[in-house]
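User: I'm new to structure prediction. If I give you an amino acid sequence, what do you actually give back? Let's try with this one:
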Amino acid sequence: MRRLFYAIEFLIALIATYTVWSQVGGQYHLDLMAWYWKLCLGAGIAFAAVKATAAAVKGERAWNARTLRWISLILALSLACGAVTYYYHLNEPPPDDDDQEDTTTTPTAQTSW
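Assistant: Good question. You get back a string of structure tokens that encode the predicted 3D arrangement of the chain. For your 113 residues, that looks like this:
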């Protein structure tokens, strides 16, 4: 029965990871990012969250060395998410100028009434 709860926790952790990542880092940068970064980092954080929960349940105390090790991995992966997002922020494509109107004016004949 525990495995079912861990599987549900993994799915909830995936949703939470990608929601927080898109809110903090920006959805535009997440859209620019290569799929393998999003898959590895997002699934890694969700997996580490489940393993931290399992370590807390298995141990005599909830805050034991294994739990803290998994939580530190979550923090390291979160910092990696921030670093990758910052890299894509620095290297985003320049904005298109097609949307702006041409500002050059051509001389027109003035008519006086």
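You can read the tokens as a compact description of the fold. Here is one thing that stands out. The chain has a mean pLDDT of 90.
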